[in-house]
Design brief:
Number of strands: 9
Oligomer: single chain
Helix content: 25-40%
Number of helices: 4
Structural class: alpha+beta
Strand content: 35-45%
Radius of gyration: 17 Å
């Protein structure tokens, strides 16, 4: 295992990047001692608007990472963007995690903390401001980020919805 396991990136397919976002080790005390199991939160993105996440559990760390990566590739979706930023402000809540995403001016960069930053970077967004307002549970933060991204609508889709 490398010294920075949570920032490990590897090229899997042609342009898809896989990132291990969070690893949790759980132990169960049995007659023979402690039995460890692992859960892994994996992020997959192509940097062009397609991104997915996977969460998997296994008795071995490598198995959990592999299963999470497969799950993330199955759940890849694309989201509405406007250049290097998002089209409008959006607020999302998932369990205790509350998240606010705002478009930022060109050159501002990704202003986000914790587990929200890698999600936005792998999605290919360059100028976004994010504020986590609730819990800091990594899984709930990632789910809130994906919920916020799914609520984004482009100007064209809104015009089409309204019949303009």
């Amino acid at each position: 295992m490398t010294k920075n396991s949570d920032s490990k990136k590897e090229k899997v397919n042609s342009d898809i990047t896989e990132k291990v976002l969070y690893i949790n080790r759980c132990s169960k005390v049995v007659k023979g001692g402690r039995k460890f199991s692992f859960s892994a939160l994996i992020l997959v993105g192509d940097g062009k608007g397609r991104i997915g996440y996977g969460f998997a559990k296994a008795n071995e760390l490598t198995d959990a990472i592999r299963k999470g990566g497969e799950s993330a590739r199955k759940n890849m979706r694309s989201y509405s963007t406007q250049g290097n930023t998002i089209p409008h402000e959006v607020y999302a809540t998932w369990d205790g995690a509350r998240l606010l995403l705002k478009p930022a001016p060109d050159g501002a960069g990704v202003i986000a903390g914790s587990k929200v930053r890698p999600v936005l970077e792998l999605a290919g967004l360059k100028d976004v401001m994010a504020k986590s307002l609730g819990a800091n549970n990594p899984i709930n933060q990632v789910k809130a980020t994906f919920l916020a991204l799914s609520r984004l609508r482009s100007r064209e889709s809104i015009k089409q919805m309204r019949g303009v």
